[in-house]
Structure formats: structure tokens, C-alpha cells
């Protein structure tokens, strides 16, 4: 008996589902409420439910799996080409169903609640870091308007502000000085919130064996390890380490015609946050590590610094996938063996 495939277009309140009955061939495109979707799938035999990987999709994936169905999460970019005519909930549901039927269609691995929570902590921290940077830059700019220049760097600059508060008070008008002092306190509160989130992220890293294995790779710390493991989800969702690197946008962009393929800069697809963490980690290995490794040292002799950093980030991501997919531990002098 053939398994029924459902194309489900999710939203906050309106849910559209498209499927073809395997026994009668009847085409159905129905509108549901949230509770009706759950009740309907709970009464149906086990099948495949295809969703767009959008907001709340991972929660729905866990819910649908608990009802006994297989879930296929598809990127919106792969669904859009199958939307016919005007874009509506009904056409979106049919496009999702059609995309799920395509051979070799790539899917997104559903995330667990813990993985989603960890990524949420990362997003909160990232927003706070961005806000802190904006506050510090504004503080520098406002003081510069009154002839006060500060040292480069966030830590050194803020330390100098605190040391020179009496001097700044004499230069800056009283109304502005009170506001600047409040802004300093606000930056301190943001620092405290960032440290609190980082402690929560590190706590999850310590209890997850996968994060601990990934963190042993040079250039990968608690932040990168937790974000990478939470984003990858199930390593089996990627066919190879190179597919993960391509998913993170760390491979060359291809453009070709007439049998000729040209390679450009990196594609920058996927999650820019994790790509940033990996590249920063690669730079830390290049400039601060005592043992850079023969591979990166030889590459540094013939390639620019930025190219080496991205290549090393690519290697770090591929190594992380290998450790997770094959349940191995990191070995410094490991050499891959080719099958004869």
C-alpha cells in the first residue's frame, strides 16, 4: 500500500493541506484550524507530511512525528518554483506537496526542543551584542563631538571613560553628562545579561556529549560548538561533510555555461551567524594558536589571509560533521584512509 503524502501550509490560525487519496485518486485541498490539523493527522494512517521550514515548523515537526507520521521540512526556496498562478494558501499547499515528490529534494532536519532553545539563546545574545556595540559607538561619537577621544577597542575604551569621568564632566554640559553616565550603566547591564546567557549556553554544552566532542576541534569554543550542533540537528540530514560546508556557505560560488564552470568567492548561503563564528575561530587559530597545523601553515604561504581563514573554517565544519556522523573523537594527527 502506498504511503500518502500531505502538503501542509502552516500559519498562525489558518492551515491548508493538499493530498491525493491513494485508494481513490481523489485530490483534496482542505482548510483546517490548528486543532483540526492535529485531530485529522491523529486519525490518519502513518504517512509523509511535508512542511515549509518556516516559523513554528520544528514544533509542528515534533508534534506530527509524535502522531506517527514522517515529516519532511523543505526550504522555501525549493518550494517557490512549484507555485502556480497567484500565491494563495491552497497553491502553497499544492506546491509543498509537489516539491516533496521530487527525487533528490533536500530537506531540513527537525530540531529538538533543546536545540531550538539553545539557538534562541544565541539569537538573544547576538541581539544584545549588537545593541552593546551600537551603544559604545554612540558613546564614542558623542564624546568626540566635545573633543574627547578614546582608545580603540570596547574594553579599553570603556575603561578609559570610567577613568576620565571627572575630566569628561568638566568638558561636557551637565545635562548631557548625566545621560552619558546612564548610558554607561546601561552598557554594564547589557554586559551582565550577555554573561548570563553565555553561562546558560556553556551549561548546555557541558551536558551534551556531541558539543563536547566538537569543542575539541581547534578554533571551536562553547559558542561555536553549541550553535553548530543545534543547527546541524541530525548529521544524517547531510550526505557528506562537504554538503554541510555548502549549507553554511563556505564553498566557492559556481557559475558556468557551455561546459565551463567558473569558481568565485564563497556562496555565503545558509546561516551567517555560524559562518561568522567559524571564521572568527579560524582567525584565532591562525593568529593566536601555537600549533597552527602543517596544513594551514603551508596554505598561508601561498594564499591571502582571508582565503586561509575561510578554508580553515570550511575544514573545521567538515571535521565537526565527521565527528558527529561517525561518533568519533578529534585526533590532532589524524589522516584519512582511502578505500582501496
TrEMBL record:
Residue ranges of coiled coil: 180-207
GO molecular function (one): DNA binding
Keywords carried by this UniProt record: Coiled coil, Plasmid
Occurrences of domain Transposase IS116/IS110/IS902 C-terminal (ranges): 211-288
InterPro entries cross-referenced by the UniProt entry: Transp_IS110-like_N (IPR002525), Transpos_IS110 (IPR047650), Transposase_20 (IPR003346)
A single GO BP: DNA transposition
Pfam families: DEDD_Tnp_IS110, Transposase_20
Domain Transposase IS110-like N-terminal as annotated: residue spans: 7-145
PANTHER family, sorted: PUTATIVE TRANSPOSASE FOR IS117-RELATED (PTHR33055:SF3), TRANSPOSASE FOR INSERTION SEQUENCE ELEMENT IS1111A (PTHR33055)
Protein's recorded name: Transposase
Amino acid at each position: 500500500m502506498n504511503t500518502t503524502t500531505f502538503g501542509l501550509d502552516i500559519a498562525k490560525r489558518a492551515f491548508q493541506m493538499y493530498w491525493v487519496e491513494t485508494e481513490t485518486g481523489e485530490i483534496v485541498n482542505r482548510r483546517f484550524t490548528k486543532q483540526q490539523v492535529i485531530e485529522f493527522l491523529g486519525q490518519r494512517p502513518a504517512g509523509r507530511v511535508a512542511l515549509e521550514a518556516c516559523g513554528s515548523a520544528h514544533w509542528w515537526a515534533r508534534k506530527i512525528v509524535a502522531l506517527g507520521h514522517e515529516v519532511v521540512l523543505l526550504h522555501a526556496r525549493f518550494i517557490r518554483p512549484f507555485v502556480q498562478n497567484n500565491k494563495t494558501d491552497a497553491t502553497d499547499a499544492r506546491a509543498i506537496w509537489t516539491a516533496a515528490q521530487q527525487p533528490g529534494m533536500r530537506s531540513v532536519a527537525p530540531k529538538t526542543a533543546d536545540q531550538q532553545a539553545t539557538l534562541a539563546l544565541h539569537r538573544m545574545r547576538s541581539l544584545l551584542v549588537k545593541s552593546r556595540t551600537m551603544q559604545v559607538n554612540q558613546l564614542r561619537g558623542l564624546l568626540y563631538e566635545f573633543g574627547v577621544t578614546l582608545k580603540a577597542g570596547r574594553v579599553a575604551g570603556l575603561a578609559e571613560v570610567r577613568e576620565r569621568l571627572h575630566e569628561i564632566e568638566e568638558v561636557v554640559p551637565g545635562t548631557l553628562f548625566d545621560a552619558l553616565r546612564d548610558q554607561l550603566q546601561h552598557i554594564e547591564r547589557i554586559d551582565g545579561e550577555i554573561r548570563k546567557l553565555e553561562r546558560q549556553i556553556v551549561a548546555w554544552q557541558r551536558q551534551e556529549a556531541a558539543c563536547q566532542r566538537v569543542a575539541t576541534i581547534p578554533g571551536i569554543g562553547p559558542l561555536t560548538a553549541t550553535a553548530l550542533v543545534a543547527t546541524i540537528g541530525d548529521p544524517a540530514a547531510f550526505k557528506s561533510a562537504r554538503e554541510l560546508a555548502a549549507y553554511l556557505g563556505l564553498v566557492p560560488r559556481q557559475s558556468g555555461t557551455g561546459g565551463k564552470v567558473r569558481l568565485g568567492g564563497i556562496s555565503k548561503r545558509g546561516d551567517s551567524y555560524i559562518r561568522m563564528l567559524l571564521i572568527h575561530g579560524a582567525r584565532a587559530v591562525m593568529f593566536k594558536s601555537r600549533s597552527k597545523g602543517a596544513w594551514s601553515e603551508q596554505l598561508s604561504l601561498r594564499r591571502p589571509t582571508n582565503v586561509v581563514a575561510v578554508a580553515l573554517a570550511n575544514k573545521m565544519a567538515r571535521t565537526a560533521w565527521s565527528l558527529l556522523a561517525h561518533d568519533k573523537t578529534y585526533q590532532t594527527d589524524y589522516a584519512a584512509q582511502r578505500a582501496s
